[in-house]
Amino acid sequence: MNKPSGYNFQYEIEDRVKNKGWVISSEQSYIDDVELKPRKVDFVASQQRESHNPRGNQVVLVVECKYLDHDAKFWFRDNPKNHKAYFVDGYDTENLFIDESRFHFFSPAKVAVNEEGAKTMYEAIMQASKGLLYLRSSPQMLCTKGLFYPVVVYKGPGKICDQDGNPVKDILYYHQYSWRDPKTQDITTRSLYVDIIHESDLEKYLDDVFKKEMNRLMDHVSFQRQMEEQRRIEEDRRREHRRNEAI
User: Fold this and answer.
1) Region of residue 81 (left: phi > 0; alpha: psi -120 to 50; beta: else)
2) Positive or negative, the Cα torsion across 182, 117, 154, 189?
3) What is the pLDDT of residues 84-94, one digit of tens each?
4) Distance of alpha carbon 105 from alpha carbon 97, whole angstroms
5) Whose CA is closest to 125, among 195, 200, 37?
6) Where would I find the beta strands (DSSP E) of the chain?
7) Strand, helix or coil at 235?
8) Best label site of 13, 16, 130, 134, fewest CB within 10 Å?
C-alpha cells in the first residue's frame, strides 16, 4: 500500500476541524529561532469568543499533522502539573487552576518527556511549539488574549508506546524551551504542554477538551467581572453611607 500524501492527511484534518466550527489558517509561516529560516506549521485553528477589549478572546490550536509509519517510544515521567505551562494570555489566572481536575493538562499522572529513536514525533512537537511561540510574538497573528494549544495529530501503521513497551494512544508531552525572538534576539524560556492526538480521537478533543476549557476560562472571567462589579457597588454604598453620616 502506498503511503498517503502528507498534504492529503493535513487537509483531511483541516476539514474535520473546520466542520466543528473552527476558522482555519493553512500553512502558517514562522521563523525557526535556531536556523533563522522560514518554516511552516500545517495550520492554525481558532474560535473567537465574546470580547470587551481590542485584543479579543480566542481559543487557538497550532497544529502539526504527522503520518507515523513506524513505532515510536516515549519516556514518561511524573507530571509536574506546572500551571505556568498552560498557555493562557491576558487573564488573571491566580484562582483559575484551584480545581486542577477541570483542566486536562493536570489530569495525567505521567507525561512524555523524550522520544527514543528517530524522533519523528519530536520534530512535529517542536514545529507546533515553535510555530506557537513565533505567532504569539508581536505583531504576529496570535498576539491576542486567549487560550493557546500546540497540538500534533497523527495516524498511520506506527504505534506509540512507553519506555516499558506498553501501548499508548493519546499522550501529553511536556518540555521546556528557550525561544529566541528572531527580531529582538531576546530569549524567553517557558514550559509547554503539547497534546499528541490520534486522529480517531480528534473530535473528542475538540469538543470535550479545547472547547470546554475555553468555556471554563470564560466562565471564570465572567465570575471575576461580576465579583469586581459587586465590590464596586459595595464600595459605592459604603462611600454614600459615610457621606450621609457626615451630614
Assistant:
1) left
2) negative
3) 999 998 887 77
4) 11
5) 195
6) 23-31, 38-49, 57-67, 72-78, 87-89, 110-116, 146-155, 160-161, 167-168, 171-180, 187-198
7) helix
8) 16
Q: What is the pTM of this model?
A: 0.88
Which letter does DSSP use for residue 136 in this model?
Answer: T
The model's confidence at residue 108, banded by pLDDT at 50, 70 and 90, is: very high
Calpha distance 229→221 (Å, rounded): 12
The distance from CA 89 to its chain's CA centroid, rounded to whole angstroms, is: 11
Annotate 163-203 with DSSP letters as a single string. TTS-EESSEEEEEEEEEEPTTT--EEEEEEEEEEEEGGGHH
What span, in angstroms and rounded, lies between the C-alpha atoms of 123 and 128? 9
Q: Count the Cβ atoms, other than its own, within 10 Å of residue 193.
A: 22
Rounded to an integer, what is the distance from CA 137 to the centroid of its chain?
15
- What is the pLDDT at residue 182? 83
Q: Which candidate, 88, 98, 174, 93, places its Cα nearest to that of 129?
A: 174
What distance in Å separates the CA atoms of residue 240 and residue 234, rounded to the nearest whole number?
10
Q: How many CA atoms lie within 13 A of 115 on its CB side?
A: 21
